[in-house]
Design a protein that fits this description.
Number of domains of chain A: 2
Largest interface: A-B, 36 and 26 residues
Oligomer: heterodimer
Strand content of chain A: 15-25%
Radius of gyration of chain A: 19 Å
Largest sheet of chain A: 6 strands, mixed
Strand order of the largest sheet of chain B: 1-2
CATH class of chain B: Mainly Alpha
CATH topology of the largest domain in chain A: Rossmann fold
CATH superfamily of the largest domain in chain A: P-loop containing nucleotide triphosphate hydrolases
Strand content of chain B: under 5%
Helix content of chain B: over 70%
């Protein structure tokens, strides 16, 4: 077991003539919280989509837990232990909070179509088991009392929690969070970072996150990579990132040539 | 455990009512009930792919036709086939095929399932409303095939004298079975996954769901029961022609499942009873009526006008259908909860 859980190696992603990611490499150590930051359009979400198999990299490879997973189908990637949340919350809107989390268990339920249709013992056993487990996750997030509410009827902050809870249900080793604190007020943000710290410990997770809120990044991340136009311009501690001249230039514009 | 016993009792009670109706009711009432039963099977299965899995498709008429022809050809004795096929002699395989009632009906479903598999491989590899286009075209192809292959289907003359084995015991029983199967699918990991695909396909994939497989599963299950329903229809009507399986059949089923609520199985069942029943119950409108001493005269087709108006009114007041995408018990629970809070 190597201490690197995820390695992105020389990743290049082109959309027609546009190079979204340019020869990017970074390593996420096991058990760490790693941040991807950068201005809008820097290619952060594209990296996520490459890791989760939604995009196939133009060049380069993605190594997860010692295995090359480049080009694997998105649903297979989940089975390997990578779960994600989306930038704009994407809950299943016709379902309750509990049902949303139950979907996350899909791959861990062994009963077949016929066992479900004829309600054989395995159906009952596993349905009971995952309901207990799902309620456990919801309790961890402090939203167990909303279990039977429609997921979209919850507050924005709680919907975020449901989305992360749903991702946790897939039993990931690596959790990808795409702007988890976006649109939250400072209190909700603090609440969320507490919860992420807690689940990271309880579920033995490694976290890769995209975020703009630097306070949040400072509090969460061990290491950050700063991207600008698909290129890495900084890698190191979050506190050093905000004083790095290249990073400042990327966010605020380059004044030296003005 | 308690729930399981209640469920079993409910099933036995329903089957008891079906058996009672089969023994005591007159043939006119039974023919209405048979019609409702067959359409319930078709609407329930159509709702699985269209409502639960959210894949807009227009396939029922094609699969019903397949089921009807396969079952009919299996049921009709070889001697009758030789008499019946007036245009050309029947193909040897048509003469050879024969089966008892239940295997014949199941065979209709199996053939439809197989065709559904062939269709779904190209269709579900891409996203979008291709399924609707492909299945619409498929329905036309089946009809044209039936019209133009007299050696297999007796062409436009259709098949007559199909043994009338489908009584209300069979039709009601299979409709009950279909309802149970559909509810069991909806309340399992498969039903949840189908709804997830309907709500947000990307998020479903991010949960590890193989969306291609789930969509194919839903489509094949729908096809199976549509084929079975077609087989029952053939045996119930005892005569089938290609024109019976036009797009109008699909359209009628679409009205039923939208009225009942896309994704609600119990909604489809209630809507089937309402739609198929009111077609009969509104018959008095076609006849001469006396209103305040004045004769209205006969207006054949008046019931269709009233029926259409009723549909419009219902859809105005219940946009998402009768029960939305909930099942009847959940719908009632939600209704009463809201009243308690108010």
């Amino acid at each position: 077991m190597s201490d690197i859980l995820l390695e992105v190696r020389n990743l290049t992603m082109k959309f027609g003539g546009v190079t979204a990611i340019d020869n990017l490499s970074f390593k996420v150590p096991r058990g760490s919280t790693y941040g991807l930051i950068g201005p809008n359009g820097a290619g952060k979400t594209t990296i996520f989509n490459n890791i989760t198999g939604n995009y196939i990299p133009t060049e380069g490879s993605i190594i997860f837990d010692g295995e090359d997973i480049t080009g694997t189908k998105p649903n297979k990637i989940v089975a390997k232990g990578i779960a994600r949340t989306f930038q704009n919350i994407r809950l299943f809107k016709s379902m309750t909070v509990l049902q949303n989390v139950l979907i996350g268990f899909h791959d861990q339920i062994p009963y077949s179509y016929f066992e479900a249709i004829f309600r054989l013992p395995r159906y009952h056993r596993h349905e009971k088991r995952i309901k207990v487990e799902a309620m456990g996750i919801l309790e961890e997030f402090g939203i167990a009392r909303y279990a039977d509410n429609d997921a979209t009827a919850l507050s924005y902050g709680n919907q975020r929690k449901v989305e992360i809870a749903r991702a946790l249900a897939t039993k990931p080793k690596l959790l990808l969070l795409d702007e988890p604190a976006a649109g939250m007020n400072p209190i909700e943000t603090r609440d969320l970072s507490d919860i992420i710290h807690k689940i990271k410990k309880d579920y033995d997770l490694t976290i890769l996150l995209i975020e703009h809120d630097m306070k949040f990044v400072n509090a969460m991340c061990d290491t950050v990579t700063v991207l600008d136009y698909g290129e890495k311009i900084f890698e190191g501690k979050p506190a050093d990132a905000i004083v790095d001249p290249k990073v400042v230039a990327a966010y605020l514009g380059d004044f030296t040539h003005a | 455990m308690k729930n399981a016993i209640i469920k079993l009792l409910l099933i036995l009670l329903t089957f008891g009512i079906i058996a009672w109706a089969h023994r005591t009711l007159d043939s006119y009432t039974l023919s209405i009930l048979n019609n409702i039963g067959i359409f319930a099977i078709l609407a329930l299965s159509y709702n699985l792919i269209n409502g639960v899995a959210g894949q807009f498709s227009l396939e029922p008429n094609g699969f019903v036709a397949i089921g009807a022809y396969v079952t009919a050809l299996l049921l009709i004795p070889a001697a009758d086939k030789i008499d019946m096929f007036a245009l050309v002699d029947p193909a040897p395989i048509i003469l050879e095929m024969h089966a008892r009632f239940l295997p014949a009906v199941i065979a209709g479903g199996v053939v439809a399932t197989f065709v559904a598999l062939l269709l779904s491989v190209p269709v579900f590899r891409v996203r979008g409303d291709y399924l609707a286009i492909v299945t619409l075209g498929f329905g036309f192809i089946i009809r044209i095939f039936a019209l133009n292959s007299p050696a297999y289907t007796n062409g436009a003359m259709g098949l007559n004298d199909i043994p009338a084995n489908a009584n209300f015991l069979w039709i009601g029983g299979i409709a009950l079975f279909t309802l149970i199967v559909m509810l069991h699918i909806v309340y399992s990991k498969f039903g949840r996954a189908m709804k997830a695909v309907r709500d947000d396909e990307d998020a479903a994939t991010a949960m590890g769901i193989n969306t291609f497989r789930i969509k194919t599963t839903a489509f094949m299950t729908s096809a199976f029961f549509e084929g079975v329903g077609g087989g029952l229809l053939a045996s119930f009507l005892t005569t089938i022609t290609p024109d019976q399986f036009s797009f109008l059949l699909t359209f009628q089923l679409l009205i039923i499942i939208v009225l009942g609520g896309l994704g609600s199985m119990t909604g489809s069942l209630v809507a089937t009873i309402l739609v198929m029943g009111s077609m009969e119950w509104l018959r008095f409108l076609d006849q001469d009526m006396v209103i305040f001493g004045m004769h209205t005269g006969e207006h054949p087709g008046m019931r269709m006008v009233v029926f259409a108006i009723l549909l419009i009114v219902m859809m105005l007041f219940a946009r998402k259908g009768l029960f939305g995408d909930r099942e009847l018990p959940e719908f009632l629970k939600a209704k009463f909860k809201r009243k308690d809070e108010a």
